[in-house]
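Researcher: Quick one. two chains, 978 residues in total.
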Amino acid sequence: MAEKTRRPRAETPKGFRDYFGAEVTERKRMLDQIAAVYHRYGFDPLETSAVETVEALGKFLPDVDRPNEGVFAWADEDQDWLALRYDLTAPLARVAAQYRNDLPSPYRRYAMGPVWRNEKPGPGRFRQFYQCDADTVGSASVAADAEICAMLADALEEVGIPRGDYVVKVNNRKILNGVMEVAGLAGDDKEVERGIVLRAIDKIDRLGVEGVRALLGEGRKDESGDFTKGAGLSAEQADVVIGFTTARRDSGVATCARLRALVGASVTGADGVDELEAIAALLAAQGYGPDRIVIDPGVVRGLGYYTGPVYEAELTFKILDEKGRPRNFGSVAGGGRYDGLVKRFTGQDVPATGVSIGVDRLLAALRAKGRVAGSSQGPVVVTVMDRDRMADYMAMVGELRQAGIRAEVYLGNPKNFGNQLKYADKRASPIAVIQGGTEAAAGKVILKDLILGAKIAESATLEEWKDRPAQVEVPRADLAAAVRKMLGQ
Amino acid sequence: MAEKTRRPRAETPKGFRDYFGAEVTERKRMLDQIAAVYHRYGFDPLETSAVETVEALGKFLPDVDRPNEGVFAWADEDQDWLALRYDLTAPLARVAAQYRNDLPSPYRRYAMGPVWRNEKPGPGRFRQFYQCDADTVGSASVAADAEICAMLADALEEVGIPRGDYVVKVNNRKILNGVMEVAGLAGDDKEVERGIVLRAIDKIDRLGVEGVRALLGEGRKDESGDFTKGAGLSAEQADVVIGFTTARRDSGVATCARLRALVGASVTGADGVDELEAIAALLAAQGYGPDRIVIDPGVVRGLGYYTGPVYEAELTFKILDEKGRPRNFGSVAGGGRYDGLVKRFTGQDVPATGVSIGVDRLLAALRAKGRVAGSSQGPVVVTVMDRDRMADYMAMVGELRQAGIRAEVYLGNPKNFGNQLKYADKRASPIAVIQGGTEAAAGKVILKDLILGAKIAESATLEEWKDRPAQVEVPRADLAAAVRKMLGQ
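Model:
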């Protein structure tokens, strides 16, 4: 019996969170802006369900650096294991295979929505978060990759990241494979070494050349004394890799020339350089120069399934970290070509390329820059002076809404008027409407300007506010017009 | 090894589905319109995660008529059982308890998103579907119920259901409880009978008075010969219930008078009639007359947790069913007052009332009425006549997009030009842009009006199209302007 009457805990599950008010509208507005860009590029929306069969999701877990992370899965009653999707790419691959006879080919689609990861939650890391993807399935042309890069640049500008504050970096996995070949790491028995090399390259910004060289060789001890085992490359092998990571030059043409010198001996590598040059030429023809999109051999992308061009959007402005030090904001989106995901289902090669925007990081960047849109004013609050005249107050609020003004009547216990003003304050209400018996008899209402009132309360020099009354009495018939005027509409 | 190389099936899990293109944008547009109304009424958005602890969801499964339906649940690694939410009300109750010291009170919130039910899928019945709720937590006033009813009417009109094509019906569970008292069914030992009576009342529209009377008495055999056991009421008891179900009169005032005559002897029943009268008066003061909102004793609402006013929006126009017979479209939204859900967590009474709109049914209604918005035109398709000049084609498509025109370049294999036009057709493209070597040399492009072309192809009288060429040649420099003109922009 005691068990039965125990109260449940009112808690979000560990690693999950709730989003209130402006947190919801600001994200929604950003996603709407991105969707408008995707739409303009001819991409169609697709919404798959949150639930997929584990079989369809496969073993393509998202991040090689975190092999232990998993999915939320359960056994369905009569058949399969089901799971929550961990990204939007795996469901797209399933859709592209399932509807391959009905979809246009190439198929450009965008998708936005939550994904779920069954991983250890940490500060700022949640087990449900939004992704916002655009992919082209069925085109082997690098024009598809170039288009996604241009669209990514457009999307960033559309949401409020000005040109110069971001850069889209493009690289090609084939060049990386060429580097591995030239360095003698192409064999099936070198998979572990290749993994270490990839992760080392990915850390060049943070560790610098010497740190990466240590990881390519015997290993590296970090400041905390922890030792990371290296790839065990010889000095000559390491030189090839280091040469690659430092191959970026002032122009895309010069970078490509340097890359060709490094990996031109490998057929795969040369092919990768050809593709990069083609992408740069296609982008230049549309006016996307290196102020927006650059060739950068430093971009690796963690995902194992990429097979060709890879790209990443980085914000180039600095923000202050938790210790007040300026830091690069870093990556907010990334993607690349993955030609093997649909083949899992159909056995046939289906080329595909696409990008995923990290919604929460991009939103955080916009907030850091003070460029977030979608926040909205609190409602006008009609207070209740006389609970028997609720119908009158509801008529007022009805008129305000019909005039397009966000408004509500106070629905709590009206006995304590101070509580009503506290409520209006908590609602960030711009105006309180007040009508007691005296005003009602005189056919008047009082409008209290809560924004001005708050300023007056804060202000040291009361003088300047003297001739701007924070409270006015207006005829009841003029309610909506007077509120609109006070709102500055 | 054979196991390892078996291909996964490309299938949505049973009972789930994918939404493509216009299916996504039409629903989004409808939800945006509803959100705008909720916003105007002062409601704030709340987005909780899809996942809750089973403990927090509790045993309030949604529908007493389908007790076997359940949730998708799994055991978390180190702690609780987790589950996908089955509605948006249970998470709200959890939030209202968890943040009770921080939220404004009363707390008006709206929420939109998918919910999940682990039930047997059927035709048109899916295991993931959208809900769109608005609730006021912390107000015991019937003004809160009246406000939700008015807002529901506004929301229906906003999305495109004209006045006269819908009605919001209001009733009160207290009156039902009064009926039970008067009929001698109030005791704890009568729960089964009360359940049968409630379900019988709910079927009055379908079964008529005699059908309901049979269910109140011994039981009823339907056309298929299936027998449903009745509540076993005496003729006198059944008269009270039948009197209630037929209590609706031409005006709310007359209906309330009739209800008072029936259940006035019960304190609870009389209280319920008082509340209904108050709601009607509050709505009348805002101009919501019986053309929009009516008192209707026929409304029961299946959910067990309702404690006061209940309401339901019904569409009053007819649609043709699968056999071509005209049928009432029926209910698209419903809700009521539930004062016990937050108490589960806190032990304290927290009054609450709210509505849930059945998103898919409402969208189906709009489609049936031809009033759905949010569909969009396919993109202008720039075809590829010469694959070496892809940069030129991408420049064209870039110009079109910069002019705000939805446009894409054909990214498939360009060898077969017929395939490109088939693709444009599949994309519902209004215009194909064509530039071969001859046109390029002359500084021209060809615009093919695909909509006009399709009309000409269909038309019996070719004459009328004669002077409207479906294909024009324009200077390359005029591309965007000429496309805009052909689009009628």
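The mean pLDDT of chain B is 89.
Researcher: Thanks, that's what I needed.
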